Amino acid sequence: MMLNTLPPAVAGPLLGQRILIVDDVEEDRILLTDFLLRQGCRLYVAKDGQDGYRKAQSVQPDLILMDIRMPVCDGIAACRLLKANPGTYAIPLIFLSAAASTEEKIAGLAAGAVDYVTKPFDFEEVRLRLCVHVKSNAQGRSQQEAGEPEWLQNGASTLDVVLFQATRRLLLEALDQTLGLNELAAAVGTNARRLNAAFKHCAGVTVFDFLREERMKEARRMLSETALEIGAIAHEVGYGSAANFSTAFRERFGMPPSQFRR
């Protein structure tokens, strides 16, 4: 849904910019739309992360303002999907949320947001943050055209690939942790069955077969390139004991990690 623009109060860098607002609180949507329409923006609205993800694909906004705590699909999960989709990964996203703890801010930025503004927000702060990131996005478009990531050059754009890439990033950033399949699926706004199907389609294996292989690859690298004790490496790649790690490594590479290091 696009809202008709009002005559801007002052011509400026936001004039004509397409902004997608994703928030389940009607009062906040109204306040933001009224303010940004007066800045000359072209506005679109969505009521949850899933709705926002769909609209971002079709609208291709210049910037997204998104809440975090929403039903159906929260802002963190939606952000991960947007950043894993070749059609939307370059769109700057600012979280505008009452979730103000340090942990939540870190999670939001780690998911791919360019900025984080806490509610209740100051309109002038919102305007300034938008101006900064709209300008940065415009400067980055030529760079994107000059050299996209390899997986984008391959033309991947299906939902399977989006789910795979978003989850792959989560897994690789936390090889020392073991998240349940349902927890991983919720983190990217889907369900366990759909997520496993995406991994089988893209990688030919289940989520946890993929994770096991990535852990072994990282363990092999650490054994070759670092002087860390084998027990420490086991912990870094998510094994509770050196013995369990050694068994898994031997099954994968045909020798225990101690022999591989020698």
Task: Report on the architecture of this protein.
By secondary structure, this protein is α/β, with parallel strands linked by helices. The chain folds into two domains: about 1-145, Rossmann fold; about 160-260, Arc Repressor Mutant, subunit A (Orthogonal Bundle), CATH 1.10.10. Helices cover about 55% and strands about 10% of the residues. It is built from 13 helices and six strands. The chain has helices at about 25-35, 50-60, 75-85, 100-110, 125-145, 150-155, 160-175, 180-185, 190-205, 205-225, 230-235, 240-255, 255-260, and strands at about 1-5, 20, 40-45, 65, 95, 115-120. A six-stranded mixed beta sheet has the order 1-3-2-4-5-6, with helices on both faces. Helix 1 (about 25-35) links the parallel strand 2 and strand 3. Helix 2 (about 50-60) packs parallel to helix 3, helix 7 (about 160-175) crosses helix 9 and helix 11 (about 230-235) packs across helix 12. It is elongated. Mean pLDDT is about 85; it is low at about 5-10 and about 140-155.
- Strand proportion, as a percent range, falls in 5-15%
CATH topology of the largest domain: Rossmann fold
Task: Give the CATH level 1 class of the largest domain.
Answer: Alpha Beta
Tell me the number of strands: 6
Largest sheet: 6 strands, mixed
Query: What would CATH call the homologous superfamily of the largest domain?
Result: Response regulator
Helix content: 55-70%
The overall pLDDT average reads 84
